[in-house]
Amino acid sequence: MGVLTMQNPATGAILGELAEATPEEVRLAMERARQAFGGWSATPLPERLHYLTRLRHYLVEQAEALAEKISADTGKLTLEALMTEIFVTADTIRFYEKHAKRMLSPRRVPTPLVLWPKRSSIHYKPLGVVAVISPWNYPFQLSVIPALSALAAGNTVLLKPSEVTPYTGLVMDELFRAVGFPEGVIQVLHGGREVGQALVAAKPDKIFFTGSAATGRAIMKQAAEHLIPVELELGGKDPMIVFADAHLERAANAAVWGAFTNAGQVCMSVERLYVEQSVYPQFVELVKAKTAALRQGFPRQADIGSMTFPRQVEIVRDHVADAIAKGAVVEIGGRFEEDGMFLPPTVLTGVTHAMKIMREETFGPVLPIMPFSSEEEAIRLANDSPYGLNASVWSQDETKARRVALQLETGNVCINDCLVSYANPHLPFGGVKQSGIGRYRGPEGLRAFTHAVSVMHDPGRRKREVNWYPYTEEQETMFVGLIKALFGRERKWNRQALRAAWREWKRLRE
């Protein structure tokens, strides 16, 4: 059994140690989750939501203390922890409290006339045991929100937080215990890759993974052996397109925040900035000035905290070095030769799509800026990526902005703002291409933790149906008439054929 060291990446302070789960502990946790599923799925939705309400109350009462613990585990500022970890989670819980009943209730749907007098409906049933494997960049909300979504839908949950941020994993474990969820309904399994592999091997009924594309592919491959459905929320290389008619001051402020918030460790970060040629020099100067004004520190009285994961620091260094070697210019920042977890916010120009900085996910405080000359070129450059998670378009011409936005190959797009679409719990979230499979948040996201059961109900008063045995020539004649009457070229139905078919229909059902 391994041991995880809990360490503050910003200060180096050791926060403690945490034992990893053993394969046997994973197996026993799965048994408890399966045993708990029957009772939890049968628990009325209002009662399940009551547990979420208690959790929300706890979040509100302990918001500052929780933010400080998350900050200590990740190196992010306490304000960022409050905004992006606590606030977003509490808001999502409130959304479920208000709307989960409507989203999960049986839904009547139309039934074709030829199936009269049957009635049709859709029912949403929980899947069973859901495995949630979460990342280190937002270790609280990217764990709690999918876990609570699964719980609200009636599933039990096994949560494996990232081994990079084990202190937050411990905090969540304590949180769920404080709320008082029934035994086995939600369990936290601490550990790294081996624990994740054991969790997938335990055959949950669904896997929800947030992290890198490489790890997502490995999980999907392992899950495919047992036909376990997988939802993947993966990385991004998100473009920001600024047209000359945009509010340049606003766009520059957004670019700096969108690139450097959480030290750039956001799957929706602005990682590629395309600016129309006529305002490119002016815009670069605006971004440089705003970047120069940023304060770096921890945990308060600063704008940018530290990086969280030492391995990610090396990736950022490599991407910047590759860009410089291929001709990029460091406009500001770029002092990466120093040791430590604090990387200065860096702006690059002279970049091309031949550089890693424009092709691969950097996940750090680096903003490469590139000019474009036409709307068509901006769309082509933005779509020239294996990723498709998020994007933003900036223009005061609303028609143009919407036209461009809807041509981008992405799962989420903002107009005259960035990243903020995730903050609306009514909207589904997810990517295309190598940015993931599936959606969570919003009605689609809650129902993603269910399977839809199609129900068709007939009163059952007649002896037979027209499509049942024995087959007759009259049936064939009737269906020919129906096909012509209902689906023929003419908009106006062939009334004579329809009446004849209807008479035969009724006779055959008697």
Q: Helix proportion of residues, in percent?
A: 40-55%
The general outline is globular
CATH architecture type of the largest domain: 3-Layer(aba) Sandwich
What's the average pLDDT?
95
Q: Could you state the CATH homologous superfamily of the largest domain?
A: Aldehyde Dehydrogenase, Chain A, domain 1
Our count of helices gives 16
Strand order of the largest sheet: 12-13-14-11-10-16-17
Protein name: Aldehyde dehydrogenase
Pfam families: Aldedh
Domain Aldehyde dehydrogenase: 6-453
Organism: Brevibacillus thermoruber
Summarize the structure.
The protein is 43% helix and 18% strand. The protein contains 16 helices and 20 strands. Helix 1 packs across helix 7, helix 2 (45-61) packs across helix 6 (166-179) and helix 3 (63-74) crosses helix 4 (78-104).
Describe what you observe in this structure.
This protein is an alpha/beta fold. It has three domains: 23-234 and 442-453, Aldehyde Dehydrogenase, Chain A, domain 1 (3-Layer(aba) Sandwich); 238-424, 3-Layer(aba) Sandwich (Aldehyde Dehydrogenase, Chain A, domain 2); 462-509. It contains 16 helices and 20 strands.
